[in-house]
Specification:
The complex is a heterodimer of chains A (about 475) and B (about 210). Chain A is mainly alpha-helical and about 475 residues long. Chain A has a two-stranded antiparallel ribbon with strand order 1-2. The chains are: A mainly alpha (about 475), B mainly alpha (about 210). The interface between A and B is medium-sized, with 36 and 25 residues.
Chain lengths: ~475, ~210
């Protein structure tokens, strides 16, 4: 018997797995004071993976591993973004980790394993693979949150994350089993085909039943209301670099599973109407509760957590528009969200030093007097989160609202706009603290050259993509069109 | 009712009952033992479904290895049941209502016409010499090789995470340095003191002197 498959579409995953195994073993031979070698190897592995993804990128979808793996333009774009974001996360985290004794090989190995899980999810064309990729990512994230064993808050956050995450993945799995029961297949393209042919019409109730559980699982992964309880606790409890990682990169993979499951697999018309309603409720509740609750927070990480919930609500609004424009707007929003979030958490990391966490709003007081440049960068990021015109956040919100209006959801769009204005309050309060208050803390801000350049690029990107959003938007639209 | 259906309902009944006992048992050791029973009966059901390999693997791996280890862990830990049960009654109304609603809704779907016996006809009889194990192996290493490998990576992550989270030096940890132990010579441990021999009579004299 012969068994041949094209391996090249999966080269990035295979390379990353190989690299993380090498790093895991190589790290044993590195002394604690030379741990920078592990860091260098990790960054090199990510660069190599970016190169391979770039070289083997395809426009037409290619399937391999018996149809379980798909390599299309959307997966390539999302993978490149994931890899770049992970590099940025590691660069921002390095000084913090070194100062806190967390600069250990396991940290890098777990980050790379989580990245691998995300890439598997992004390229999954099979419910089983999707689930396994999700588990790979979540297991790595749980242990990353708990990595600082002596911190009681980190352990508590990890515990909450683990229990709720296990529940959510159980729901997702149950939903998938129902979908399998209704259609007899786990392969996403085949699933869509079977539903489109109408051969499962009498089992519609079972499909919708499975869909409810799948949507619940996705809702947990993104952290939208009513599955948002873990978000603030995990962000606040985990060490800053882990919070930076958990809050940003996995959302890209979350977007990928939305596209794969809802748009590709269960995208038949009668089912779209079903999940549109569920997403609608989740999105509106997220925007309302996220923005209102964020106002009363004094901890910056907690505030950003609630702002994440609101942003994810916006992404869902784009998805529920249900067409190509809506999905590409949602993808654009997600990419912009990740950029903004990396900047905001990166700034917390930049200001924190040994024994000082800089995660309260008060810690940003008078930042302008201490360092006008970083205050300006933070200003750009905050403006972008509000959605003030020259920054990219404005176009992200605009694209989503446009797609929403085209799909005829006027009242929802109005609610979204109103609560975005409410949300402007807490972002602008931070700007006020930075610019109009006197600093209490006068420690010098002296980040390394790499962080300096990257933070400037990150803040500058808000302005750059705000002035020229077209290329990124076109890329999102193009990759969604190529994948659907 | 044929004998086969009787067997099925017997195993299924014991399985559900023991599963309920797992979550209601007050003593964690009892809960673990009920879980063993649940695994055993589900292995029985698998045998009925002609999935011999899975049944045997379940008994060997879960009952034989995992649960025994788990029992050891449960016995070593000092779990405070009373504290874990605190607030049980105050959470019961809301939790119970949600659970009842969920069970009701699931019941509508699962017991409906969708999953009836008519929808799933009995499979054809297997040819002689058919090997369940071989078929599973063939599928795992060809069609399902990708998820199989991912599962392996997940296990690797579990190992890395478990070691990273538990292997740490506490201030109170008392370990020994094996290298130092091997290097040690007799002179480092034994001190030979030369003393004057003591006679019986002198001893009495000493005692008297002390007194």
């Amino acid at each position: 018997m012969e068994f041949i498959l094209p391996l090249w579409p999966a080269y990035p995953e295979l390379f990353l797995l190989l690299a993380v195994s090498v790093i895991l073993i190589g790290d044993l031979f590195v002394r604690d004071e030379n741990r920078i070698v592990t860091y260098g190897l990790t960054q090199a592995a990510l660069v190599g993976c970016i190169f391979i993804t770039w070289m083997w990128a395809t426009r037409e979808p290619v399937y391999t591993f018996s149809g379980m793996f798909v390599d299309d333009l959307m997966s390539d774009v999302l993978k490149l973004l994931v890899l770049l974001s992970v590099m940025l996360v590691l660069a921002y985290s390095r000084p913090y980790l070194a100062a806190r004794g967390m600069f250990r090989g396991e940290f890098f190995a777990l980050i790379l394993f989580a990245t691998l899980g995300m890439m598997i999810m992004i390229s999954a064309n099979h419910l089983l693979v999707l689930y396994l990729g999700l588990e790979l990512m979540m297991l790595s994230l749980y242990s990353l949150v708990a990595l600082q064993r002596d911190s009681a808050t980190a352990t508590e956050a990890a515990m909450k994350y683990f229990v709720l995450g296990a529940l959510a993945s159980g729901m997702l799995l149950y939903g998938m089993s129902m979908i399998y029961g209704a259609t007899g297949t786990l392969e996403i393209t085949e699933l869509a085909q079977l539903i489109a042919e109408g051969s499962v019409s009498d089992l519609n109730a079972v499909l919708v039943f499975g869909l409810v559980f799948v949507v619940a699982g996705i809702g947990f992964e993104l952290g939208v209301v009513p599955f948002h309880m873990w978000v603030p606790d995990v962000y606040q409890g985990s060490p800053n670099p882990v919070a930076l990682f958990v809050s940003s990169v996995p959302k890209l993979a979350g977007f990928a599973i939305i596209v794969r499951l809802l748009a590709q697999g269960l995208g038949a018309e009668q089912l779209v109407a079903e999940w549109q309603q569920m997403l609608l409720v989740m999105a509106v509740l997220s925007i309302v509760i996220g923005n209102v609750t964020a106002i009363v927070q004094t901890n910056l990480k907690r505030m950003l957590a609630y702002s994440t919930i609101a942003h994810m609500g916006f992404v869902l609004l784009g998805v529920l528009a249900g067409d190509e424009n809506g999905l590409s707007a949602a993808m654009f929003y997600m990419v912009v969200y990740v950029l903004m979030n990396l900047g905001a958490f990166g700034m917390i990391l930049l200001l924190s030093r040994s024994g000082f966490e800089a995660d309260n709003l008060e810690d940003f007081r008078g930042l302008n007097q201490r360092s006008p440049w970083y205050a300006f960068m933070m200003l750009l990021i905050m403006f972008s989160m509000v959605g003030i015109p020259p920054t990219v956040g404005f176009y992200a919100k605009l694209a989503v609202l446009q797609a929403l209006l085209n799909a005829g959801f006027l009242p929802v769009a109005v609610v979204a706009v109103v609560f975005s204005v409410v949300g402007a309050f807490y972002y602008l309060r931070l700007v006020k603290l930075m610019y109009f208050d006197a600093p209490e803390d006068t420690a010098p801000i002296a980040p390394g050259a790499d962080v300096k350049v990257l933070m400037s690029l990150n803040g500058g990107a808000m302005l750059f993509f705000g002035i020229m959003p077209q290329p990124l938007m076109a890329l999102c639209l193009y990759s969604i069109q190529a994948s659907l | 009712m044929t004998f086969q259906t009787f067997i099925f309902y017997f195993f299924a009944g014991v399985l559900v009952a023991s599963a309920i006992c797992v979550i209601t048992a007050r003593n964690p050791v009892h809960a673990a033992l009920f879980l063993v029973l649940a695994f055993f009966t589900s292995a029985g059901i698998w045998i009925q479904l002609q999935a011999e390999f899975l049944a045997i693997a379940l008994v060997l791996v879960y009952v034989g290895a995992v649960m025994v280890l788990f029992l050891f862990v449960v016995m070593m830990l000092d779990i405070n049941i009373a504290r874990m049960r605190a607030g049980f009654w105050s959470y019961l109304p809301v939790g119970g209502a949600v659970a009842a609603l969920l069970v009701l809704e699931m019941g509508f779907i699962v017991t409906g016409n969708y999953f009836g016996a008519e929808g799933a006809p009995a499979p054809d009889a297997l040819p002689p010499g058919y090997s369940n194990t071989k078929e599973l192996g063939r599928l795992l290493y060809t069609e399902y090789v990708y998820p199989f490998e991912i599962a392996a990576v997940i296990l690797l992550v579990a190992i890395v995470a478990a070691i990273a989270l538990t292997l740490r030096r506490r201030k109170t940890t008392r370990g020994m340095d094996v290298g130092e132990q091997v290097k040690v010579r007799r002179e480092d441990r034994v001190r030979i003191v030369s003393m004057q021999p003591v006679r019986a009579g002198d001893e009495d004299a000493q005692k008297r002197g002390e007194a």
